[in-house]
Design goal:
CATH topology of the largest domain: ABC transporter transmembrane region fold
Shape: elongated
Structural class: alpha/beta
Largest sheet: 6 strands, mixed
Strand content: 5-15%
CATH architecture of the largest domain: Up-down Bundle
Number of strands: 10
Strand order of the largest sheet: 6-7-8-3-9-10
Helix content: 55-70%
Length: about 650
């Protein structure tokens, strides 16, 4: 759509990737400058002051040539010289003030944009992060936010500066000699005509360059972190990654060259137009001087004013280009800020201060939303096993296609307070999906999940998080000390509480054996620790949190048998006092469970205790028989029942 407002020259069809600057967007952009209006106001005042002071030196030149030198006026010469020195010094001091308040407004704007975007993204569901590259997010916080800030604190002050300079200079030039002033503006079309096309070209190049920078950042974040570097090295793919980075890096380089080339052609045209205007002034003005119509000082002053005239004109055409290209930055920032928050608190969210721990899944359906998401959590659902007879709580089966397979289908079960429930099933059965639904990392497509009778969608997410403790499949530790990672669960925990939690997780002695003890830095993602040590610290962190509901997603998969036995013994009293939902990989956990839920392709196939399920002779019995050697009198030889 075309916008026919006064800025319509940069509003074009967005479907073609061109600028679309509307009144609504303008109000939104300028709203970010509103909290900093005092600083911006001071900047504008200093701009006017500096521009007006800049009008004085050419008048001093004229007075020097026309009056001081012919009349040999030494006193007047002293004042002219003092003015030539004093005005730049005064302008310099005002410029310092301008720069301070400009930086204050600019950095404040960057702070506001980043803070708002970070706050917004913190509220995004897990779905957003599984779809978005980390390098892309970092690019929005760095280059795009700075580019958007430049539009408000760079482009707009430049616009005001050049408008004030242009108007004041034209007024003075007309008052001195209107014929030369008219001649000076004749070349203006040569400045304005190329501006529109160059703006569109540079904007297109800038958007492409930003996308290429984001791709390069993503390669860096993927391959130069510990996980990425480990993968590259173990598969010997460093040459391939070097080639990928060379391609991305080369694309960024080529965009920069293209942008510089287009800009240089444009500014060369501007310089030629300015040279033509200056030559006309000297040619026509020289004839007027020779005829005695104007003084020599007048043409000298005019020549000085030409720089103040053509400079702002050139800059104003460049403002158009800068503003058009900076729209790309705003568009990319707004693109993130406008992403809907999929999971959020209702206006009347219930605060859960204490809970008994009764959990119910009632006809729960869930789809990740596409093939890209299907494998994102390790619980993809094969499209060849689509249910044909499930019904939701409202009697309508959700639409399922190959692009949106249902990870959970008409799932119903209940967990009583204090029960330990084990989730068992083949890969892709939906176990991890269930553990993600309980802390509300995702919401059901249909049906509902309740805690103590409250629909999770009606509960405050912050209070829900306080009631649920979770150890995920991959334990994540910040690049900080062991103590800091543990205190993340309870910021005001005492050292005794921290040590008690670590003893329960069988990790205290190992920590104490380290040279720096609890102040040991674990490294990026905790890679200075072994997998079992990381897992035990993660478990200690949950124990320190002391939640009412425990969710363990393969929480002991990285532990040796001895460490796991100690942890199981430590967790046993916690299981008895809390509702626990565990993805079970080991027989000891399964045997201790009050209830076992057997899943397959997102459906609950069987439910019961270990003896009951074996007696049924169904999927659970088959998994048990294939994973264990049940000979030798029925005593399992293997240690782990790997069914997750």
């Amino acid at each position: 759509m075309f916008n026919h407002s006064w800025w319509g020259y940069i509003a074009y069809d967005s479907s073609k990737g061109k600028p679309q600057f509307t009144r609504q967007m303008a109000r939104r952009i300028f709203a970010y400058g509103r909290p900093h209006w005092r600083s911006i106001g001071i900047v504008l005042i200093t701009i006017v002051a500096i521009s007006l002071l800049g009008l004085i030196p050419p008048l001093l030149y004229r007075d020097l040539i026309d009056n001081v030198l012919p009349n040999r006026n030494f006193s007047r010469l002293n004042w002219v010289a003092l003015g030539m020195v004093g005005i730049p010094i005064l302008s310099g001091f005002i410029s310092i003030i301008q720069r301070y308040y400009s930086a204050r407004a600019g950095e404040g704007l960057i702070f506001d944009l980043r803070q708002q975007m970070y706050e917004h993204l913190q509220q995004m569901s897990l779905r957003f992060f599984t779809h978005t590259k980390s390098g892309e997010i970092i690019s929005r916080f760095n280059s795009d936010v700075v580019g958007a800030q430049n539009a408000v604190t760079g482009t707009i002050p430049n616009l005001v500066t050049n408008l004030v300079t242009l108007i004041s200079t034209l007024v003075v030039m007309i008052s001195i000699e209107w014929r030369l002033a008219v001649l000076a503006v004749i070349v203006l079309p040569f400045f304005l005509l190329p501006a529109r096309r160059v703006a569109l070209t540079l904007r297109s190049i800038r958007r492409t360059a930003m996308e290429q920078n984001a791709e390069m950042s993503n390669i860096i974040s993927e391959t130069l972190t510990i996980n990425g570097a480990l993968l590259v090295k173990t598969f010997g793919r460093w040459r391939r990654e070097l080639g990928r980075f060379r391609t991305a890096n080369g694309a960024v380089r080529d965009s920069g060259i293209q942008r510089a080339q287009v800009g240089q052609w444009f500014f060369m045209g501007m310089e030629i137009a300015g040279t033509i205007g200056t030559a006309l002034i000297y040619w026509v003005g020289g004839q007027l001087v020779l005829r005695g119509d104007i003084s020599t000082g007048t043409i000298v002053a005019f020549a000085a004013y030409l720089f103040r005239l053509y400079g702002p004109i050139s800059a104003l055409t460049n403002v158009h280009i800068d503003f058009a290209t900076s729209l790309v930055s705003f568009e990319r920032v707004f693109e993130y800020l406008d992403k809907p928050i999929e999971i959020q608190d209702p206006p009347t969210a219930k605060q859960l201060n204490t809970v008994a721990g009764a959990v119910r899944f009632e006809h729960v359906w869930f789809a990740y939303g596409g093939k890209e998401f299907g494998n994102g959590t390790g619980d993809s659902t094969s499209t060849s096993h689509i249910a044909t007879n499930g019904a939701t709580s409202n009697g309508v089966k959700p639409t399922e296609t190959s692009a949106t397979p249902q990870a959970l289908r008409d799932l119903s079960f209940s967990i009583e307070p204090g029960q330990l429930v084990a989730l068992v099933g083949p890969s892709g059965a939906g176990k991890t999906t269930i553990t993600y639904m309980l802390p509300r990392l995702y919401d059901p497509t249909d049906g509902r999940i309740t805690l103590d009778g409250y629909d999770l969608r009606d509960v405050s997410m912050e209070s829900l998080a306080q009631q649920i403790g979770m150890v995920t499949q991959e334990s994540y530790l910040f690049h900080d000390t062991i103590r800091a990672n543990l205190l993340y669960a309870k910021l005001d925990a005492t050292q005794d509480e921290v040590e008690a939690a670590c003893r329960a997780a069988n990790i205290h002695n190992m920590i104490e054996s380290l040279p720096e003890g609890y102040d040991t830095v674990v490294g990026e993602r905790g890679y200075r620790l072994s997998g079992g040590e990381k897992q035990r610290i993660a478990i200690a962190r949950v124990i320190l949190k002391n939640p009412r509901v425990l969710v363990l997603d393969e929480a002991t998969s990285h532990l040796d048998s001895q460490s796991e036995a100690l942890i199981q013994a430590a967790l046993e009293p916690l299981f008895k006092e809390r509702t626990s939902l565990v993805i079970a990989h080991r027989l000891s956990t399964i045997l201790a469970a009050d209830k076992i839920l057997v899943l397959d392709h997102g459906q609950l196939i069987e439910e019961g205790t270990h003896p009951e399920l074996l007696a049924q002779g169904g999927l659970y019995a088959h998994l048990y028989e294939t994973q264990f050697n049940v000979g030798n009198g029925g005593v399992p030889v293997g240690e782990a029942m790997v069914v997750g």
